[in-house]
Amino acid sequence: MHVSTPPFNLYTKDNPLPAKLLENRMLNKDGSSKDVRHLVIDIAGSGLTYKVGDSLGVYPSNRLQFVDEFIDLLGATGNEPVMLPRQTAPLSLREALTTKVSLAGPTRKILETLAAKTTDPKEKEQLAALLAPEAKEALELFLGQREFIDLLEEFPGARLTPQEFVDHLRRLMPRLYSIASSPRMFPGQVHLTVAPVRYESNGRRRYGVCSTFLADRVTRRKTPVPVFVAESHFGLPADLTKDVIMIGPGTGIAPFRAFVQERVATSAPGRNWLFFGDQHEKTDYLYGDEWKRLLAEGRMARVDLAFSRDQPKKIYVQDRMREAAAELWAWLKGGAYFYVCGDAHRMAKDVDAALHEIIAQHGGLEPAAAADYVKQMKKDKRYQRDVY
């Protein structure tokens, strides 16, 4: 019997593949204050394809205990039918809260509804104060520390029907994770590097929806993980002789593991240089054994490490860039591609500033000319960022 392979675009954002999780292991060693997971997703036989630099979109489910709390606070059973935008038929409140809507990020609108519905004078007063025109900052602060669950608990005098409540919720969106594997090296698999988000605010434990779905709630080989491939602008040079410089601290290491696997699999003659940083080398050197092996085999030209807490003065990847400035400039002058992945708020800005400085100093350029050089690198796709 001839089995035809499905077309590669059979599974999309609107029609995700119900994949299985094959592996979930912790990358940090005992004693680390961090929790980063290496996850292996099975896509074998699905026809789903990806290239290094792409991301995997994952549709999470909300925590079941959390959904139960909402149902209790609404005084509902969970079987009540509710309508959501773009749905053609009603679905149960429980199903909507589990897989369709986001339970975080309340807005002013829900407070206005609670103010209109509450029968409790104290609640009315508190809500009126928050909604006053001059209370903008206080309102922002108040909402920033809360999820919808807190509001239902804090304003029990307002009885919302299941439909009234879900009308305030946004769609539960997929989360995108940089793929940490090359399909040439691991056909039929997608590897991810995920740090589960867990923290406390307003006296309550909070959980990142998708990161803890993958790390804590997906039972290996059992729970389907709805996934699709999100194509990216982020990718290796077509010319295999080009050198690549990769800056990927923390989970920003993910796409560079894929890049180097691809470079090894394609016997790319270009050199590979990685900058990696985290807190402690002993416990937080993600994929450390792999990098050590690749370095020993001569597959990596350099691996520069910045472990911020291993010495009194904190050291970051941008500090290591400055220390290696002359060689870094020599690589760039020779046509090397420069990649950054990870935290957009601080790291990427600090790395960008260091890059401008190095080009100005070692290229003998005025700041404006160095900025033009960087602009040209971006235009030529020689400077690429995957930041979040």
Side by side, the strands of the main sheet go 6-3-10-1-2-7
Outline the low-pLDDT stretches: none
Largest sheet: 6 strands, antiparallel
Helix content: 25-40%
C-alpha Rg, in Å? 24 Å
Percent of residues in β-strands: 15-25%
CATH fold-level label of the largest domain: Rossmann fold
Compressed to H and E, one letter per element, the order equals: EEEHEEHHHHHHEEEEHEEHEHHEHHEHHE
- What is the CATH homologous superfamily assignment of the largest domain? Nucleotide-binding domain of ferredoxin-NADP reductase (FNR) module
Structural classification: alpha/beta
Number of helices: 15
Distance between the termini: 47 Å
What is the count of distinct domains?
Answer: 3
Any idea of the CATH class of the largest domain?
Alpha Beta
Give average pLDDT, whole number.
96
